[in-house]
Amino acid sequence: MNKFISFFTLLICFSLFDFTARAENVSSTKKPVKSIRNPLKSISDPTENNQRDFAYFQLGGGRAILIEFSELNNAWVLDSRLGFKSSSGWGAELFFALVPHQYDAPMESARIAADAKLLGVAPTYSFQLSKEASLGLGLGVGYLIVNRTYFSPSSNDHVYRWSLAPDINFSYKLSNEVYAHLGFRAVFTVTGTKLTNEPRILLPTIGLGYRF
Description:
CATH class of the largest domain: Mainly Beta
Largest sheet: 8 strands, antiparallel, barrel
Shape: elongated
Number of helices: 2
Helix content: 10-25%
Number of domains: 2
Strand order of the largest sheet: 1-3-4-5-6-7-8-9
CATH architecture of the largest domain: Beta Barrel
């Protein structure tokens, strides 16, 4: 009887030991449960491209509206900008505006051609209006050069003036890199060869820009 009890006790102990070993083996080979990621997190925010730092090149054209230089009134203007914008909205740009030769020969002024160039720099700030649209403001300082040619007698007239050139620029994102823009730049002369009847120039432009 004692032998039977001893054998039964050993059998129970062996069974418990075997069950414990199997349980430990299962727990060691069990793969950890991976956390399920929200698939929406992997989708980039549509406004992310607008919140990063980037450089840009912008090219546009339009019609110049000028007071004083009547021979350049309604002339075509080419406006180009190379700039940088930070994620905070602040930036800076180098701008160049060109009004190519405009031929106009009223007999009272005897002018046959005129052109203008404006080169300057500007600090800028951009407001994000929506995921695609933004509004930029700039306070530019530039150098204005106006060339006029007369035919009777044949001579040239050059005007050089430092100018304030504030601008407003509306842009709409077409893709991550390309955007369309509509802008207006005003030019106010602060120094020059003439201190009276200073030119006030408005350069409206429309075009495309590229971010890189």
